[in-house]
Write a structure and sequence with these properties.
Blueprint: H1 3-17, H2 28-50, H3 56-75, E1 87-88, E2 100-103, H4 108-115, E3 125-126, H5 127-133, E4 151-160, E5 177-185, H6 195-204, E6 213-214, H7 218-221, E7 222-226, E8 229-237, H8 245-253, E9 265-267, H9 280-297, H10 299-305, H11 314-337
Antiparallel strand pairs: 1-2, 2-3, 4-5, 4-9, 5-8, 6-8, 7-8
């Protein structure tokens, strides 16, 4: 069974499996809304498959809203319905990466964020920064976007302090050992003379890298993988002696949670100072809401952006809307189940 089939089966199974382990059991109103909302989610997603990118954001967003209503019907404490989006785009005249979306009042976005334990945004956030925080979209950035991107993190292992002596000269400070990781960056490898400052600035941009340092000397920790891509070895002082696999897993889950596939971890940049970003589900929500608003109220601007012969963003926008067809059902299933559901490693990404 491939991942897509498993997700579809899981979503269909939720129609009965959640009845006894959610608020659905005690409320006929919740049960009926849950069933109707999931049916509309399925139909909107099917409709999104057959329409062109000019219309697809509308189906994707309203399908996602219905999925969000199913999630709140099943799991929200207290008030679980909503009749507003809870979002607003103050000005749609900017270039797409610079268009900003902000919360407004309390609506669907806030209700689903709270129910799925996602960080809420409190101020305006540009579409460029939202786009770059979504792991699937990092390698196809929007034209002119300079925002901090999500980056891959490969968790490594625990290394005792006595085995790290050839790398560090601080093994006598009481440090038990180090936890290592490799971070993959989609940009040109910084020159050797700039690497200390690059590392300092890079670590500051990701909450998950707090306390990290380079594993070894700058000339050995960096490896160019291909043009515009390199890796860097980082480490943290271990919080305990002789960390086991489960301890290492817990250490990295708090910094770069597994996302969609087993062992695939991503560092995601915060939208606002000292805050973790919204979950990928709610980041996609912000993006698809914004695209649907453009498609509905600025159709000329949106279709111009999709003009493959004229617009430098057309291919990237098409890619994002195609990707959403695969990603959104998976993230919705996780929201319904209230847990991560990682799939087997894909053959290619």
């Amino acid at each position: 069974m491939n991942g897509t089939t498993a997700i579809q089966l899981g979503l269909r199974h939720c129609r009965t499996s959640l009845a006894d382990k959610s608020h659905l059991k005690s409320s006929a109103s919740r049960r009926k809304t849950f069933s109707a909302a999931l049916q509309q989610f399925e139909e909107q997603m099917k409709a999104a498959e057959v329409v062109s990118p000019a219309t697809r954001p509308i189906n994707l967003y309203y399908g996602l809203v219905q999925a969000g209503l199913a999630i709140t019907a099943a799991h929200a404490q207290g008030t679980w319905t909503f009749d507003k989006h809870g979002l607003k785009i103050p000005d749609m005249k900017h270039d797409i990466p610079d268009i900003a979306v902000r919360p407004e009042g309390v609506g669907a976005f806030q209700a689903v964020s709270d129910t799925t334990k996602s960080e809420r945004t409190t101020g305006a956030v540009s579409l460029g920064s939202i786009w770059n925080s979504i792991p699937e979209l990092v390698e196809v950035p929007l034209e002119g976007s300079k925002h901090t991107p999500a980056v891959d993190l490969l968790a490594r292992s625990y290394v005792s302090a006595r085995n790290a002596g050839r790398w560090f000269d601080d093994t006598a400070t009481g440090t038990a050992g180090y936890v290592r990781a490799t971070v993959f960056v989609h940009e040109d490898t910084p020159p050797l003379t700039d690497r200390k400052s690059w590392v300092r600035d890079f670590i500051a941009r990701y909450q998950g890298l707090q306390g990290a340092r380079v594993w070894g000397a700058e000339d050995e920790a960096f490896e160019e993988l291909k043009a515009g891509s390199f890796s860097v070895e980082l480490c943290w002082p271990a919080p305990q002696n002789d960390m086991q696999e489960a301890d290492i897993e817990e250490f990295f889950e708090a910094r770069a949670p597994v996302y969609r596939f087993r062992a695939y971890r991503y560092l995601r940049p915060a939208f606002e100072t000292s805050k973790t970003p919204p979950t990928p589900l709610m980041s996609w929500w912000l993006l698809l809401y914004s695209f649907s608003m453009l498609a509905r109220y600025q159709p000329r601007k949106w279709t111009d952006a999709l003009d493959i012969d004229r617009s430098p963003d057309a291919a990237a926008l098409e890619y994002a809307l195609n990707t959403a067809l695969e990603v959104i059902p998976h993230l919705v299933l996780e929201g319904l189940q209230q847990r991560s559901i990682p799939l087997s490693k894909p053959l290619a990404l």
